[in-house]
């Protein structure tokens, strides 16, 4: 059995891992003077729309943008399951960007729109004192309901 497939009785269950995506995750905290509702609404409706509507988004071949809201109220259940939540950094939101080539992300990050529009707009909601943590990883999508035609 290869590392890119699993089998049960010789039947392949997972697709071939032929082109994993590159995922860039930004973890950040809201400004202290705005509410969580204000933060999430602005992040989604203003910053999110600016991001995907930017010329750089299309020309740099950006594939996916996901906004993740932190759910600390659910972490107690993780602890009951013997898991350790990521508590070394307080965060309220995480933006995930996906590309197929690293150069596509570099072009987007270094674009004039990122510097003159997206960065300054993020400053309307992100706490600079808390900082931003970033991870970069390869994402091998094993299953997604869209791939199965369920959504």
TrEMBL record:
The EthD domain, residue ranges: 32-128
Gene Ontology MF terms: oxidoreductase activity
Gene3D superfamilies listed in its UniProt record: 3.30.70.100
Highest rank taxon of the organism: Eukaryota
InterPro entries: Dimeric_a/b-barrel, EthD_dom
Pfam families: EthD
UniProt record similarity statement: Belongs to the tpcK family.
This protein's name: EthD domain-containing protein
Species this protein is from: Tothia fuscella
């Amino acid at each position: 059995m290869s590392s890119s497939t699993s089998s049960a009785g010789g039947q392949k269950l997972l697709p071939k891992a032929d082109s994993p995506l590159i995922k860039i995750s930004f973890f950040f905290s809201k400004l202290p003077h705005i509410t969580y509702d204000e933060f999430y609404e602005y992040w989604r409706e203003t910053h999110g729309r600016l991001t995907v509507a930017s010329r750089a988004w299309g020309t740099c071949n950006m594939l996916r943008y996901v906004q993740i809201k932190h759910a600390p109220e659910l972490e107690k259940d993780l602890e009951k399951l013997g898991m350790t939540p990521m508590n070394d950094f307080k965060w309220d939101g995480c933006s995930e960007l996906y590309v197929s080539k690293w150069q596509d992300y570099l072009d987007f990050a270094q674009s004039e729109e990122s510097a003159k529009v997206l960065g300054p707009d993020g400053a309307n909601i992100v706490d600079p004192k808390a900082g931003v943590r970033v991870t970069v990883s390869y994402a091998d999508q094993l299953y997604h309901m869209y791939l199965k035609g369920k959504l």
